[in-house]
Structure formats: C-alpha cells, structure tokens
Write a structure and sequence with these properties.
With about 120 residues, the protein is an alpha+beta fold. The protein is built from 4 helices and 4 strands, in the order H-H-H-E-E-H-E-E. Strand 3 and strand 4 form a beta hairpin.
Length: about 120
C-alpha cells in the first residue's frame, strides 16, 4: 500500500513538470468535463492579429466556431478529443450554425466573422 502511494506521488511529481494541476486531476479521474474544456477554450482565445487565430476541431457542445491562439491549438484539440473519448453517454447535440467563413482579431479575442467583417452571433 505504501509503495503504491509513493509510486503515485512520484508520478504526479514527474508529470507536474509539463502539466497544470487541473490537467493532472483530470487525467487521474480518466476524463474531463464540458465546463473545463469550455473554460480552457475561452482562456486560449487571445490574439494580436487575425493570423494568430485557429479554428478548433469541435462543434457541439463547444459552440459553432471556437477559435484559439495558434500556440494553443494542439493542446485544446487534445482536450476535446479526450472529452469525446471519455464521454459516458450517447448524448446528441445539434446546432444550427450561421455561415461564418472568416475570422477576425478584435480587442485581443478571435471572433468568427461573416463576409465584410460582420461579427457572427
């Protein structure tokens, strides 16, 4: 029992070098929840210019167009894949998304745009 506890603590310590405390707890629980992913998407949505923005590989339940900074894209897509891989039910979620072919950077946030710079809501 003690050896198992020491092993777990050692693994946690080693993984702390590359992961946040939240991610460690999530990995120990073998899954993540929707609110955590949405919060991470929101925190990762920052830009200086529109080229900083990247569209996340997700839709429902994470909005029609979720953009994050290019530097955060791989991490967020991994979180989303983990979310869907560990989902316990076959919940169906459908959106009627507007067509928003462009992205813009406004006030430090990436936003989906219709043509001619009109913000999609």
């Amino acid at each position: 029992m003690k050896q198992s506890l020491y092993l777990i603590l050692a693994l946690l310590f080693l993984s702390a070098c590359s992961r946040s405390a939240d991610e460690m707890v999530i990995n120990l629980n073998h899954g993540i929840n929707e609110e955590y992913v949405k919060d991470e998407i929101q925190k990762s949505n920052y830009c200086s210019i529109k080229e900083d923005c990247a569209l996340v590989d997700a839709n429902c339940p994470f909005d029609c167009y979720s953009y994050v900074n290019q530097n955060e894209l791989e991490r967020i897509n991994d979180l989303i894949r983990n979310f869907f891989n560990n989902r316990q039910n076959d919940e169906v979620c459908l959106y009627d998304c507007p067509y928003c072919p462009e992205v813009g950077c406004m006030d430090g946030k990436c936003l989906p745009l219709r043509s001619h710079g009109v913000i999609c809501y």
